[in-house]
Amino acid sequence: MLTKNQARTFFLGGTVVFFFIFLGLSWHTLSLEVPKQTHEENLTESVIRGKELFDKNNCMGCHTILGEGAYYAPELTKVIDRKGAEYCKIVLMSKEPWQPKGRKMVAYAMTEQEANDVVEFLKWIGEMDLNGFPPEPDLKGKLPTE
To answer: Helix/strand/coil (H, E, C) string of 2-17?
Structure first.
């Protein structure tokens, strides 16, 4: 059995040890793993401007990106792979509200440069190593055969 002082020492010692383990693992993740997975070397001025436009227009108010945001509109993490850059540019530059499948997207009427910047941001997001997120849909047996 531990005495009261031994128990306190054991608790405090364990807390300190695990606190330093936590700090070490956090440092490792933030300094080595995150840059490797996000490809920080590919950040350009265009990507940064695209992120600023994405935030300014509150795209996450309707869309999700990297699993965060609202669930009204489609996930945008791999939208360039799914729809293509030109499709995304057309939607962003549209002067009329975009209404695929009954849900209206705000008509942002972006300039071509603004649309290019947002597309560059979405391309950069789509190229991240996300450990399989979002998962590819399993369409075996669900598509009509030719």
So the answer is: CCHHHHHHHHHHHHHH
